[in-house]
Amino acid sequence: MEQNAKKVPGPSKGLLQSEDLYQYILETSVYPREPEFLKELRHVTASHPRAMMATSPDAGQLMALLLKLVNAKKTIEVGVFTGYSLLLTALTIPEDGKTRLIFIESEALPVLDQLLQNHENEGSFDFAFVDADKVNYWNYHERLMKLLKVGGIAVYDNTLWGGTVAMPDASVPEFMKPGKQFTIELNKLLAADPRIQISHASLGDGITICRRLY
Fold it and tell me: Does the pTM of the predicted model rise above 0.90?
């Protein structure tokens, strides 16, 4: 953020202004192109008590586009809820593509370190999606910068943390405060990382798209 930057008066060009507008996007551009398997999984997940953890369909649509743009064949996924993003990846990459899924968060760092021990894995992955424990996002990022090829994409989910990153602490529910701080620190680190080109998109709970430059 620019120092001493002034807020420009007028309507915001960023965040959606209403639920109706969001529904318009979903019903016009997202749902008609959503594969039937993903649609069924989304409907099943909607009844889950923690359904808000699921990848939003509009974020998923962008991920599918990114996978195609980089012609991804070898991917990593860290963390999974009911599997929307994993199924989306499987449906998008070629039949001979491979996804390395790390389901259990406590195993994620050791598995990534194990992958790095095999030097053939360095710079060999096309795409990574991370939706896991926020305290380790930066640790995942450091490892993914070695595993991704130059030009590869890493996508981090929940980088707006329910909007709390822009809220005063007094307005943030107690259980969300640790995640808020981890997310703010991550966003600062990603914004300052010269190894990547980034786009912080206000889709779902916020996704940050990182393209490895070197």
Answer: no
